[in-house]
Amino acid sequence: MLYLPHDDPDLAGLVKNEEDRLETTINLIAAENHSPQSILEVMGSVFNTKTIEGYPGKRFHSGCAHVDKVENLAITRGKSLFEAEYINVQPHSGTSANLAVYFSVLNVGDRILSMSLPHGGHLSHGHKASITSKCFDFSHYKVNSETELIDYDRVREIAHFIKPRMIVAGASSYPRLIDYEKISQIAREVSAVFMADMAHLAGLVAAKVIPSPVPHCDFVTFTCYKTMMGGRGGVILCKEIFGKKVDQAVFPGCQGTTAVNLIAAKALIFKLAMEEKFVSIQKKTIQNARIMASILMEKGYHIISGGTDNHQVLIDLTSKGISGKSAENCLESAGIVLNRNVVPQDEKNPGRVSGIRLGSGAVSARGMGESQIREIVELMDMAMMNQASQEVIKKVKSSVLKLCKAFPINRSA
Ligand code: DSN
């Protein structure tokens, strides 16, 4: 029996509407995915009741027999999946995980070198609007203006000049592989510790379809709901020698109690990520992103860096004479959901921006492949190039609906 329709019919209606929206739209948001039903079940389970502080066997509240087992399961499975020496599964989010890593080994005011946000980096990598920039002294590296790839020689030059205590690799919108080995070498040259934020890439790394940062890094952080296909929340992997400092920085340093239901979802997705279905979705995710990028390029779109190695395709729409915001809006009205995105050297204001970011995770989880991706790109092009025509938008929306019906969201694991 469902209780929500009785307790709060308005909210129950909104849940139903959201289910319908997900079912009837094509989701190209690179930071989202369709999780298995069992993930939704465990996130809504009685583990929500339990308040915990501390770590398994060393808690500040009683009644932890079962939740200790849950956290230990997440720890054992996560370490094994990512071949990590140490893991902390308590961070509330990717940003909480990053903050805890910074505070685990740095002092307030210490220098950190990370990727600039307009060039792909994340808010929590020291953007001026983020608390991280108020606590630490960030400098940023960029992509090369011609290749739109990370300029590792420049990273080395900046690192030798500013002598950071930490170097951060990882991005929210960078479609290429990152050479973690090269950056770890630079970090060693300047005696910095090295952290990679693989929030977007965790599922691809877990399935071993792209190289893992783990062997090259002192710390790796990630979230579980993007390519990883799980529930909400963050995770920290690190070298054993930093384990105790990381634990202290998470609790009691940056967080109080944490969400056991989310830790249970982490344990579950780490198990499911070892199975064939997960690996095949991740393979498809990479193939679909490559197909998207190459068809868009054939159609004359400027694809940042000229392609993709992961689940993201970043388009600079300047040459097409439209803004990221107008593309996002018209595509949403046609049933295709994605986000406007700042691109390197962006000249538009932060609200409008020049680009859009596409992600292939959620369509791949629905089972879509090459011919559906071709159709989606055709539909996107048609809608973006005819934004003022209600007739075209209606036509695109009706094709989107047909596609969605043919590929319903599959929540079996
Ligand atoms: N970092 C944001 C994004 O990539 O969209 C949220 O996860």
Helical segment tally? 16
Cofactors, ions, other ligands: D-serine
Strand order of the largest sheet: 4-10-9-8-7-5-6
Q: Find the structural class using helix and strand composition.
A: alpha/beta
Q: Uncertain runs with pLDDT below 50, 5 residues or more?
A: none
Features:
single chain, 413 residues, alpha/beta, seven-stranded mixed beta sheet, four-stranded antiparallel beta sheet, 16 helices, globular, binds D-serine
Task: Walk me through what this model shows.
- There is one protein chain.
- The chain is of the alpha/beta class and 413 residues long.
- Helices cover 45% and strands 14% of the residues.
- It has 16 helices and 15 strands.
- The protein has helices at residues 4-7, 9-24, 37-43, 65-82, 94-105, 131-135, 152-162, 180-189, 202-206, 243-254, 260-272, 276-298, 324-333, 361-365, 370-385, 390-406, and strands at 26-27, 54-55, 58-59, 86-88, 111-115, 137-141, 166-170, 193-197, 219-223, 234-238, 302-303, 312-316, 336-337, 339-341, 355-359.
- The strands form four sheets. It has a seven-stranded mixed beta sheet, sandwiched between helices. A four-stranded antiparallel beta sheet has the order 11-12-15-14. Strands 1-13 form a two-stranded parallel sheet.
- α3 runs antiparallel to α11 (260-272), α5 (94-105) packs across α10 and α12 (276-298) packs across α15.
- The longest helix is centred in the C-terminal third of the chain and has 23 residues, at 276-298.
- The two termini are 23 Å apart.
- The structure holds D-serine.
- D-serine binds at residues 31, 122, 172.
